[in-house]
Write a structure and sequence with these properties.
CATH superfamily: Hypothetical protein apc22750. Chain B
Protein name: UPF0145 protein D9R08_10480
CATH class: Alpha Beta
Order of helices and strands: EEHHHEE
Organism: Rhodophyticola porphyridii
Low-confidence stretches: none
Number of domains: 1
Pfam family, one: YbjQ_1
Number of helices: 3
InterPro entries: UPF0145_dom_sf (IPR035439), UPF0145_YbjQ-like (IPR002765)
CATH architecture: 2-Layer Sandwich
Family: Belongs to the UPF0145 family.
Number of strands: 4
CATH topology: Translation Initiation Factor IF3
Length: 103
């Protein structure tokens, strides 16, 4: 499955648009609370544990989006956008794009 932020896939033509696909992942309240509580501890540095958690959430959202595109018969997802939202003490990572069949 090709996943790209561009609106085309170099070397391929888009034969058919299958529709919009979305994948989400939510990080629980404890992680977010710990992140903000420990912000003074990581100023000027990086927190590997939180970067790993965010990376896993992003990967989960992208995988879920790709699975939905695959279920629609798509070969690729173009125009992918990643969004991060805080909702009720939880962090949501959302990936969206357009599922397409390549020609």
């Amino acid at each position: 499955m090709i996943i790209t932020t561009t609106h085309s896939v170099e070397g391929h033509q888009i034969a058919e648009y299958e529709g919009i696909v979305v994948g989400e992942a939510i990080l629980g309240a404890n992680l977010l609370r710990d992140l903000f509580a420990g912000i003074t501890d990581i100023i000027g540095g990086r927190s590997g544990a939180y970067e790993q958690a965010l990376g896993k959430a992003r990967e989960t959202a992208l995988d879920e989006m790709a699975d939905r595109a695959r279920d629609m018969g798509a070969d690729a997802v173009v125009g992918v956008d990643l969004d991060y939202e805080v909702m009720n003490d939880m962090l949501m990572v959302s990936a969206s794009g357009t599922a397409v069949r390549l020609g």
